[in-house]
Amino acid sequence: MADEITETLLHMNRRRALQTAGGGLGSMALGSLLAGEDQPGSAFRKGAAAKRVIYLFQSGGPSQVDLFEHKPALAKLHGKDIFAHVEQTGRLTGFTNKHKIHPIINTRYAFRRHGACGSWVSELLPHMSRIVDEVCTIRSVSTKPVNHDPALTFMQTGHNLPGRPSVGSWLSYGLGSMNRNLPDFAVLVSKGDLGNMQPLNARLWGNGFLPGKYQGVRLRSGAEPVLYLKDPAGKSTADRRRILDTIKALNEEELARTGNPEIATRISQYEMAFRMQMSIPELADLSDEPESTFKLYGEDARRPGTYAFNCLMARRLAERDVRFIQLYHSGWDHHFHLPRHLPKRCRETDQASAALIVDLKQRGLLDDTIVIWGGEFGRTTFSQSGKVAESYGRDHHAACFTKIVAGGGFQAGLNYGETDDLCYRVVRDEVPVHDLHATILHQLGIDHEKLTYFFQGRRYRLTDVHGNVDTGLLA
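Above: the chain's sequence. Below: its structure in token form.
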């Protein structure tokens, strides 16, 4: 059968050689004219501090005032209307804009200073508190959207509407691959009973208007981390290789005829899938991990699909030079009964998050890896329900929240930025999302204003028409 396909392909090539020659030459000429439109290489600068990113995304909006922001004024003003003490600015969500008063709610959790840097951390994060001297704590991040879907989209793509490439896709496009056998951009999503979960759409790790080969590849839990990699029953690897070679030849002819970049994407996907038939099982096989690994990350790291397992997988992916590794952990949207749910999320993530940073450092990988921890926005210091309650909830808050960044030339042990006494707005060293993106790109050796892609009549970039590198965050 393979010989018949090959013979047909040979005849097809002879028959269409003259037909496609003119179009092929024209496509080559057009390509040379357009070559200057979007050359990622022009965005590079010398002296990159990092070469990969691990983004530990806590979807839903972790409460900074229950985890990182020690605000004694909350205890003094507990139950008082916050807008009697600060001027209301920005949008309130539909959950709380109807309330007559917005009573301040003090946290139930004790805070202590930790490390030589004296960083305040809640009792809910005992493991993270031990590594504060290894991380940069940014207390002054701000965003624009106040609802989940646009805020998630904005944090991942630099724009609040769908259709733009994700951060990982931009880096895959701009920096290219560091390995042949795994995708440049890998995504892992925690499974399990995660309470109030916001939907995680695949477009959050999508390529947008970039060619399809730059989209994220989701690695799943279970027997098949990547779907459809296994050969059909009764087919040998040699048979599969012959079939793929024939398909590749057909696709290459069509690519020469049409110049359609999606055909090039399809060729690369087939080839990557073939190589991943060996690389993915090896990646997912934890039998080579010593017991000390599971002591560090916790016993959950043995169970596929858990956050701890995904953190361990992130380290293994980083060791194999995957460019961008995105973890999603949902369930941080605590409008009601925060004291019931927040401790659960912290128990699921605290040890493994800290372990990943420790593990990367002891393996010599933290210096050139940027690790980011945080969500799409923070939570309010006033009650969600408009009432004072023991089992309180907090609404969305976009004006100020906390991100943790480690490695990659970010200054370790730094507490950056400051919010007011009621954690309502930033009063010093604000870090808008576009500035955070610009700074991350800078540490990867990219000028954020030059990494562009021409689409629908103009050049687009991750930071849109905004963004400044915040050198105060850097070592």
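The chain has one domain: 51-227+290-473.
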